[in-house]
Write a structure and sequence with these properties.
Elements: H1 2-6, E1 17-21, E2 37-39, E3 45-49, H2 50-58, H3 62-68, H4 78-85, H5 87-90, H6 94-117, H7 122-141, H8 152-159, H9 165-183, H10 194-210
Parallel strand pairs: 1-3
Antiparallel strand pairs: 2-3
Helix pairs in contact: 6-7, 7-8, 7-9
Length: 213
């Protein structure tokens, strides 16, 4: 994930790795349940248990949806491939609200930086613009593409502080307006395909219990 998945990596970029794991079904038959997520073992590594990951994706959590649509996959077993094949089932117009709320929270942090220091954290400003672009294009096309492609250089210019804060604010406002306009006629369904995801999770849990995975 992070800059490498977004197509914004530079020589100084970290390697952020996110994963999904399946806790054995038998582990749920005890009072002490398996964890919903695990940090590590190395820095910049974090994983979700499959059910928790699916719950968050069905709620259109931006970080989870972007993880599910990352173009860079380091390792994937048969269950993982089935999860990736379900990517479209998680998408819905609810993404407009969740992405917008996330963007608002990030914008408040940038405004606080400007008040305190006279300038935002430019890296965070770049990533907020990237998120807004991704949201707008998702609503327009029905597909979530997180690699910034042709927008790489203009976004990196923001990260380097080469674009004025006023111009960055104007771009953010324009992207938010474009996403709002796209939401009304988006090809995305109103709700995600929860039944399809639930069936996948049920079959996966059964296979784990029977030892057939």
């Amino acid at each position: 994930m992070g800059s490498r998945a977004f197509g914004l990596a530079t020589e100084e970029s970290d390697t952020d790795i996110r994963g999904v794991f399946l806790a054995p079904t038998a582990a749920y038959w005890r009072f002490e349940k398996p964890p919903t997520h695990v940090e590590g073992p190395l820095d910049e590594q974090f994983s979700w248990e499959l059910e928790r990951f699916c719950e968050l994706a069905l709620r259109a959590n931006p970080n989870i949806l972007e993880c599910l649509h990352s173009p860079l996959v380091e390792r994937c077993d048969a269950t993982g491939r089935e999860l990736l094949a379900l990517r479209g089932a998680f998408l819905s117009r609810a993404a407009h609200d969740t992405f917008a709320r996330y963007a608002l929270g990030q914008r408040k942090r940038l405004d606080a930086d400007v008040r305190a220091h006279g300038a935002p954290r430019w890296k965070h400003a770049m990533h907020l613009l990237r998120l807004l672009m991704s949201c707008r294009d998702l609503l327009r096309t029905g597909e979530l593409v997180i690699d910034v492609g042709h927008a790489r250089e203009e976004l990196l210019a923001v990260k380097r502080g080469e674009v004025s804060w006023g111009e960055v604010e104007a771009r953010m406002a324009r992207l938010a307006d474009e996403a709002e306009a796209a939401a009304d006629r988006s090809p995305l369904p109103a709700e995600p395909d929860t039944a399809r995801v639930a069936d996948f999770l049920y079959r996966t849990r059964c296979a784990s219990a029977l030892g057939t995975l």
